[in-house]
Every structure is written in C-alpha cells, then in structure tokens.
Amino acid sequence: QVQLVESGGGLVQAGGSLRLSCAASGRTFSNYAMGWFRQAPGKEREFVAAISGNSRRLYYIGSVKGRFTISRDNAKKTVSLQMNSLKPEDTAVYYCAASIQVYSNDAREYAYWGQGTQVTVSS
C-alpha cells in the first residue's frame, strides 16, 4: 500500500516556475515507478512525466520536454516535478501516481494516486 500527498501547486504568471512535490508513505518506495498526470477542466487526465524506481529512465510528454523535470529521492520517499516556463495551457490539477511497472505513461498502470494539487497559470 502506498499513500501519496502532493503539494506545491498555486497561481503563477506565464513564464514563471513552480515545483510540485509528492510525499509517499509505505515501504519499498524505490520499487515503484512514479508518474505525474494532469487534468484540465473538461478534459481527460493526461500523462505528463514518469521516472523509474532507480531514476535511470525518464519519460515526458512532448509538450513539457525542456520545461519540466521529474526527479525523485528514494531515501526521503519523494518525487518532484520542477515546472519552468509555464504556459496557460499547463493549468490543471496535477496528480502524482505510483506504478509497480518499470515506468509507464498509461494511467491504467498506476495503482496509487494522490489527491491532486491545482496549478493555475495566468496569461
């Protein structure tokens, strides 16, 4: 069992930065791939980024490559998403999730989810 709690969301102007964090509880955190997803109003949940348990594999959706960076600290049981050069289209509720798979961009592979944190980017 893994419990996830996100933090770090907020309101920022376009071009600004935010850092999202996700704290996990439970054992064997390093066995789980971690992902970030987002859901904008009226849209389906969208994959953003994923990182394997040993941080060797990273995966980003094309629209955030070069702007977002996913990282993790297995000792602290945390995963972070550094978001730079934010755009209004990045506005969404952001969720972190844990998967027993090596890593995945498919939400169906993620068994554990946080409650989400709102990110709003104003133009």
What does this structure look like?
There is one protein chain. The protein is mainly beta. Helix content is 0%, strand content 50%. The strands form 2 sheets. Strands 2, 4, 5, 6, 9, 10 and 11 form a 7-stranded mixed β-sheet that branches. A 4-stranded antiparallel β-sheet has the order 1-3-8-7, with no helix packed on it. The model has no long low-confidence stretch (mean pLDDT 95).
What is the gist of this entry?
This protein is mostly beta strands and 123 residues long. The chain is 0% helix and 50% strand.
**Overall mean pLDDT score?**
95
Oligomer: single chain
Derived structural class? mainly beta
Q: Radius of gyration, Cα only, in angstroms?
A: 13 Å
Shape: globular
Termini separation comes to 40 Å
In sequence order, what are the helices and strands, one letter per element? EEEEEEEEEEE
Low-confidence stretches: none
- Could you tell me the number of beta strands? 11
Alpha plus pi helix count: 0
Q: Estimate the strand proportion.
A: over 45%
The amount of helix comes to under 10%
Main β-sheet, in a few words? 7 strands, mixed
